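Internal ticket - ligand job 297, 6CS:
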Amino acid sequence: MTTTTTADRYPTRTAGESAPITRAEPALWNGAASGPLDAATASSYDAKGFLTVDGLLTPDEVEVFRAEVDRLRTDPAVRADERTVVEKQSDDVRSIFEVHRISDLVGRLAADPRLLDRARQILGSDVYVHQSRVNFMPGFTGKGFYWHSDFETWHAEDGMPLMRAVSASIALTDNYPFNGGLMLMPGAHRTFVPCAGATPDDHYRESLKEQEIGVPSRAHLTALAAAHGIEQFTGPAGSALMFDSNSMHGSGSNITPFARSNIFLVFNSVENALVEPFAASRPRPDFVASRDFTPLG
Ligand code: 6CS
Ligand code: FE
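stdout (structure tokens):
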């Protein structure tokens, strides 16, 4: 049986520092194709690597999803599930992965045309859910996420060949500048930043709490920030951010009384299905990186 190996366009988890690589593939895979994004929004997404959708969910829908994620967060069976990650310092629930399979409500949201049609237009193909999670960034104790590119991890540890995935972060609480709102470097999605350091076995057990391997060097981050600046996703509950898999992003911790919770859905193109990890000894579990490539919708 012949096994084909996919060329590694983006070597990372190298022994030492290596130079950034210019992205070869587009961010917007089929520009003019029909879909909910108008031309101005589509070209802005291509240039910046992200877009926002005001009022993706109605206030009533926000209430329904908040009740649903609070139900999950307080369910002892869910807390005991390996798909639930708790904060390093406290016992607070940090994330619940594969939430689109645990909750029918979230499963339906993943197939909702308001998200699905945007993802298909951006990726230029049918899509499937690569990963879903609900992030609870509780007030006072919510820990942030250091700067990173999701694609760097998904390429190294999940075997995602190309940058042909888009994430949707749907705010269930108001996102202020001061309660851990996501920060992004507009345009940095066009540069792949290799990260030094080999991937430990079962790295996800640590990295989902606090990522130390697979983070760019300060020198690379300084250069990217100088070239692109930093923008922050703020907005009322119900608004959504859609960002390219290789966007450089991170968030601060939340010491305010205002929680910052979001549902996070990652759409990958069915033409970008996972292969073997490019820089890890074995693939991560399905609940972090799905290997069911059945198209949505
Ligand atoms: O490792 C991952 O797949 C997850 N880690 C982060 C910090 N963002 C993307 C993703 O949810
Ligand atoms: Fe991330």
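Auto-summary: The first strand starts at residue 21 and ends at 22. DSSP finds nine helices and 13 strands in the chain.
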